[in-house]
From TrEMBL:
Keyword field: Glycosidase, Hydrolase, Signal
Region annotation Disordered: where it falls in the sequence: 22-67
Domain GH18: 65-387
Molecular function terms, GO-annotated: chitin binding; hydrolase activity, acting on glycosyl bonds; oligosaccharide binding
Taxonomy, superkingdom: Bacteria
One Gene Ontology term, aspect cellular component: endomembrane system
InterPro entries the UniProt entry points to: CFLE_GH18 (IPR041704), Chitinase_II/V-like_cat (IPR011583), Chitinase_insertion_sf (IPR029070), GH (IPR017853), Glyco_hydro18_cat (IPR001223)
Lineage, uppermost ranks: Bacteria, Bacillati, Bacillota, Bacilli, Bacillales
Protein name, per record: Spore germination protein
Xref: PANTHER family: CHITINASE DOMAIN-CONTAINING PROTEIN 1 (PTHR46066:SF2), CHITINASE DOMAIN-CONTAINING PROTEIN 1 FAMILY MEMBER (PTHR46066)
Gene3D superfamilies: 3.10.50.10, Glycosidases
Length: 387
């Protein structure tokens, strides 16, 4: 009997111990079926004593890039707000533009207050000089600067003086619509001005039309020598946008296949770390049917496009080839429209290109267009260099 009671006692103790161990395991959360099915994501583990968690080790580091936002300071108060809203996300704010005159003088901007806001936000102000006059880029002005030594020297002196007086930290030379036969003359001008400005302690850059090969000629492309610009400038800005434009047929402003062709060519001529890829902060609204020479398309901000789609009950669609959203709607007069614009998905497609091609960064045309998701997404993808 004692032997039998002893066996019963041992069995009871064993049963109690197993139950206790089971309760401890479930209470700790390990192999808990209720916890596994929870809809809430697990909390991030803290790093203690300088040791990284496994998740932190496996997480890819954000690429560090530079970012540029072009500003047209037409209205002083609006320009100040435009800079204030996004300058924390920018390496440079590019002031577009100081217009070059044939004699080498500069037509200035009303830039005092937006320059102050730029500096207050820790971004670097960039001076942009152009051959822009009377609503377009003028090849005659560029040719005169390239061929008249007095005008060229006067321009260089004026550029350095303005940069020192106003506190600009970088220069961008944006000469466009140049005669194709002036290509070597333009190279010679850059070979003169950029080293002088750089010796004064400033960063120097140029803007390049989007080319897919060196054989691409004409007034917008022919005079832009990718290899030479990549050699003499600290970096270049590729203007990879405006395939869809105000005077052209409806299409995405920066279709990814076209942008990719430009990048494929550019990286064969220019070091990747000198390439800033251009990106639009806007879209266009075309009246249909499109006719060449007809009403120009209206530029509109991404946020404005979204509101228009909501008001008109339009269904937003996405073109997977061009990586851009669009929609159709009818105005109050019954006319049909199509809008191509930018959204979170199209912005991400452009960020993916920067990562894929390992570029220096991104350059936005133009500040003042409402697109708040772009800036938060930019920070999610990259660390922005600040100097």
């Amino acid at each position: 009997m004692k032997r039998w009671m002893g066996i019963v006692l041992v069995l009871a103790l064993l049963a109690t111990g197993c139950a206790g161990m089971g309760q401890k395991k479930q209470g700790s959360g390990e192999n808990n079926p209720h916890k596994a099915q929870s809809s809430h994501p697990p909390k991030a583990e803290k790093v203690r004593h300088g040791h990284e968690t496994d998740s932190a080790k496996n997480r890819p580091a954000k690429p560090r890039i530079e970012s540029i936002g072009f500003l047209e300071p037409m209205d002083r108060k609006k320009a100040m707000k435009d800079v204030h809203d996004v300058a924390d996300h920018l390496t440079y704010v590019s002031f577009f533009s100081y217009r070059v005159k044939s004699d080498g003088d500069l037509i200035p901007l009303n830039d005092k207050d937006p320059l102050r806001v730029t500096r207050n936000h820790g971004a670097l102000p960039m001076l942009v000089i152009t051959n822009f006059h009377e609503g377009n880029f003028q090849p005659d002005i560029a040719h005169r600067i390239f061929t008249d030594p007095k005008a060229s020297k006067r321009l260089i002196r004026n550029v350095v003086r303005v940069m020192k007086q106003k506190g600009y930290k970088a220069l961008n030379v944006d000469f466009e619509h140049i005669r194709e036969k002036d290509r070597l003359l333009y190279n010679g001008f850059l070979e003169t001005i950029l080293p002088i400005v750089k010796r004064e302690g400033f960063t120097v850059s140029t803007a390049l039309a989007p080319k897919a090969s060196d054989r691409q000629g004409g007034p917008w492309h022919g005079a832009h020598d990718y290899a030479f610009h990549g050699k003499v400038a600290d970096f270049v800005i590729l203007m990879t946008y405006e395939w869809g434009w105000t005077g052209g047929p409806p299409m995405a402003v920066a279709p990814i296949p076209q942008v990719r062709k430009v990048l494929d060519y550019a990286v064969t001529k220019i070091p990747r770390k000198k390439i800033m890829m251009g990106a639009p902060l806007y879209g266009y609204d075309w009246t249909l049917p499109y006719r060449k020479g007809g009403p120009p398309a209206k530029r509109l901000a991404p946020q404005e496009a979204m509101k228009l789609a909501q008001r008109s009950g339009a269904k937003i669609q996405y073109n997977n080839r061009d990586q851009a959203p669009y929609f159709y709607y009818r105005d109050n007069g019954g006319k049909k429209h199509v809008v191509w614009f930018e959204n979170e998905q199209s912005a991400q497609a452009k960020f993916d290109l920067i990562k894929e091609y390992r570029l220096r960064g991104i350059s936005y045309w133009v500040l003042g267009e409402d697109f708040p998701r772009n800036w938060s997404l930019l920070r999610e993808n990259f660390k922005i260099r600040r100097y």
